[in-house]
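Whiteboard transcription, Tuesday session. T.W. wrote the structure tokens on the left side:
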């Protein structure tokens, strides 16, 4: 009797132990693509990084709005010694307005005692004095100024960061799907090779009995041992591929604390019917305009163009002369005090300031640069739109071809199984030889591997198409965050 290698005995014992354990312990729930997508969206570091960047941009936007906060200020003084004994206090509230470069202010001041003539501006009636005023920018800074530019630019940057979160999630979820289905395919390929090895091991037992009876020559045992060795090599290689695929999947599959998890092989999902996989290759065709409208990188480019136009507006503003108009009304309150009757009136004041930069080289240089940058961004947008349209068309072709290859692979499996079963019957009846039967078995196994690869290609093509058309539901992307 031929002696089995120790490894095969251990393998068979381990297999029997696992089979017994499955009867006693409930099998773990299969790992689904939805589980992986939910995990990667919540815990993948690159996604968390983009969300943190969005929070930082939100902080910048809030800080930029601070330029239009209501500002209150107060000052005062009192002479403690000397010829004069005047005391004065004044408070002012100022509010910048976003429209027409205006700002409004209101103030109240009150004084007591006497002041030298060079400080007689501090004199008020006994009830103090109240004033309101407004400042208008009539030319430069009317439509835009540095503060309004900063606020608008910060809002646009926040919008970009929001699109960047979506862009990051789309890329991560696409890669997570690919990693998941590669892991599933590697596990199913391992099962094909394990089944092929099991057939050879079971046949070895029968051949030993036949050799003992003299029905088969000793050489058949050696030939089958050669098949076992070759098939064990395939199993070992497939186990390596499965471990590598599980490691790649762990980048996206994480626990509640965000730590990577290695998916166990016993959590492989059951195979799907061919018609279900075939339906994956027939997605609802999205028009080019719809795909372009959904793509976050194009939204980022459009926002970038808007930011460049905002810079151009600021540069053009800086080329204008400044003409500011100021109007103020001041009213004395209470009875006449040390300042005399001149403080007991309603004063209406109108003033202006005018200035013009003569050379303006800095503003012209910034304007030229912004216009050139805008043109470059517009060309980039056009090129990216054409690339996306081409990408979507190619993915539709890829899906169509993958559907055809899937059907051909399924037909090849069916045909090879018919040939294998027929050859087995002929071998059992003595009408065929051992070599031809092994060939039929391995061809049938290769056909199953091709079918698994065709299914993987179909699923990857659909994941790529969903990412290209930004199908949020199929990519497992939630609207929140």
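and on the right, the sequence the group agreed on:
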């Amino acid at each position: 009797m031929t002696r089995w290698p120790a490894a095969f005995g251990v393998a068979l014992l381990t297999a029997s132990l696992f089979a017994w354990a499955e009867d006693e312990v409930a099998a773990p729930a299969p790992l689904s693509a939805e589980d992986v997508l939910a995990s990667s969206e919540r815990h993948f570091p690159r996604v968390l990084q983009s969300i943190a960047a969005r929070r930082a941009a939100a902080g910048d936007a809030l800080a930029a709005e601070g330029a239009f906060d209501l500002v209150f200020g107060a000052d005062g003084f009192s002479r403690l010694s000397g010829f004069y004994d005047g005391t004065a206090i004044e408070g002012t509230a100022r509010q910048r307005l976003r429209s027409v470069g205006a700002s409004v202010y209101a103030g109240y001041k009150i004084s007591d005692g006497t002041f030298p003539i060079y400080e007689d501006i501090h004199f008020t009636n006994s009830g103090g004095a109240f004033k309101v005023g407004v400042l208008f920018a009539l030319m430069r800074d009317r439509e835009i100024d540095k503060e309004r530019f900063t606020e608008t630019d910060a809002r646009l940057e926040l919008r970009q960061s929001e699109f960047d979160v979506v862009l990051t999630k789309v890329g991560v979820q696409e890669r997570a799907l690919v990693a998941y289905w590669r892991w599933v395919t590697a596990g199913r390929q391992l099962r094909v090779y394990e089944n092929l090895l099991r057939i050879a091991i079971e046949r070895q037992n029968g051949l030993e009995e036949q050799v003992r009876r003299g029905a088969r020559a000793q050489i058949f045992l050696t030939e089958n041992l050669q098949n076992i060795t070759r098939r064990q090599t395939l199993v070992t290689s497939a186990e390596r591929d499965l471990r590598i695929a599980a490691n790649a999947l762990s980048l996206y599959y994480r626990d509640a604390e965000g730590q990577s998890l290695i998916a166990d092989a016993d959590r492989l999902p059951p195979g799907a019917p061919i018609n279900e996989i075939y339906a994956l290759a027939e997605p609802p065709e999205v028009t080019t305009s719809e795909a372009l409208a959904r793509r976050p990188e194009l939204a980022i480019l459009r926002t970038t163009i808007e930011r460049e136009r905002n810079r151009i507006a600021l540069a053009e503003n800086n080329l204008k002369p400044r003409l500011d108009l100021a109007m103020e009304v001041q009213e004395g309150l209470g009875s006449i005090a040390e300042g005399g009757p001149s403080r007991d009136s309603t004063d209406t004041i109108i003033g202006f300031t005018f200035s013009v930069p003569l050379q303006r080289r800095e503003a012209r240089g910034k304007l030229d640069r912004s216009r050139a940058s805008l043109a470059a961004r517009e060309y980039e947008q056009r090129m990216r739109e054409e690339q996306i349209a081409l990408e979507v068309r190619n993915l539709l072709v890829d899906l169509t071809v993958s559907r055809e290859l899937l059907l051909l692979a399924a037909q090849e499996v069916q045909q090879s199984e018919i040939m294998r079963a027929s050859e087995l019957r002929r071998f059992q009846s003595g009408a065929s030889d051992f070599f031809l039967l092994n060939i039929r078995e391995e061809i049938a196994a290769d056909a199953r591997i091709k079918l698994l690869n065709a299914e993987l290609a179909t699923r990857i093509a659909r994941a790529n198409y969903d990412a290209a058309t930004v199908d949020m539901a199929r990519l497992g992307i939630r609207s929140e965050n």
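Someone added at the bottom: Residues 1-25 have pLDDT under 50 and may be disordered.
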